[in-house]
């Protein structure tokens, strides 16, 4: 019997036979994967990567998006939101659906963003604010080699059901000099991302890390659902011991959405915590999970000591320099941004640099306007969270007395 992988590969080769498949391929794959993926299908002989597009190494090759003449020049990109509008108009339908989609009714995704708009600054005046101070579809080896030596990389891990696979991956990562691991715990199963399900997969996509291949089936065509099948849904607190024994560097638990779990992770000696809604991925997994800003406030109210114990990172919904400053005022050590950077990649490296410059300018302006010159001066007194404070649970655990276990079964 011909394997599914081989059947899909055969279909793709026939689909693109005699045509230029560069654009479709470049949207998601690096050139260095060609010899590995094509030779395993045994449909072609051994391929020498130096014969492929030899004049243009992957980092310099224009992507389909970079070479697209329909995009406005980068100099006319004024707001981080502009990148989103441009990506929507220039990415393929499937890439746009995968990047932008979130779970079911998009409530968690929208709240991640809108809650930042419900926190008001409390600016202080007549302060001298003149001088401000601010300090993968690609194989990990290729990513690391593209950066300057000693660049401080983090590696994000989904634990594989087959633990030896995760262990050998972590060994590769360690040997590359990476010492901080982000352990993603909010995605034991992927959410129902309907926009991603709706756009059919044209040809085939497979992940270099797990080797799983995305397919169209009766539930739809979600990349996340069909490619995340290797992730271990049985991952539990006791596995932190496995990670701790195996990984001697720092571990950051990514995906905490309840103050009790943040406290537990801090007490169990995990070096940092990323707060997110329950399966956030920017609201991509469990819809109506709490917006990240609410989880941050919940932690401040119930376990303020955690901020002194561990570094607290925040992601989800951050789009502006003002959002960054609000999160830092409320105790975040640092923030991460997902989608806007993906959208900026429509312009390749220069798009990402432009976005960083824009966010830094916005952050510096906001700092001056609230009266601080250094991020170490950010504090909760600079924000007014009154509009959402009543949503922070006043007690933890079960809120209603007398709740018994539910009788319903699935
Ligand atoms: C296309 C896409 C792929 C993602 N893949 C992963 C992943 O593999 N592992 C992970 O921990 N988070 C993943 N995330 C979630 C991001 O790490 C981050 O938590 C989220 O995008 C932050 O929200 P924001 O996009 O609103 O900034 C992904 C997000 C997007 C948009």
UniProtKB/TrEMBL annotation:
Coiled coil: none annotated. Residues 49-77 are annotated as: Disordered. InterPro entries: Aldolase_TIM, Cyt_B5-like_heme/steroid_sf, FMN-dep_DH, FMN_HAD. One of its GO terms (molecular function) is oxidoreductase activity. The keyword Cell wall biogenesis/degradation does not apply. PROSITE patterns: FMN_HYDROXY_ACID_DH_2. Its cofactor is FMN. The keyword Oxidoreductase applies. Residues 57-77 have a biased composition (Polar residues). SUPFAM superfamilies: Cytochrome b5-like heme/steroid binding domain, FMN-linked oxidoreductases. Residues 1-388 form the FMN hydroxy acid dehydrogenase domain. Keywords: Oxidoreductase. PANTHER family: CYTOCHROME B2, MITOCHONDRIAL-RELATED, S -2-HYDROXY-ACID OXIDASE-RELATED. This is FMN hydroxy acid dehydrogenase domain-containing protein. It comes from Trichoglossum hirsutum.
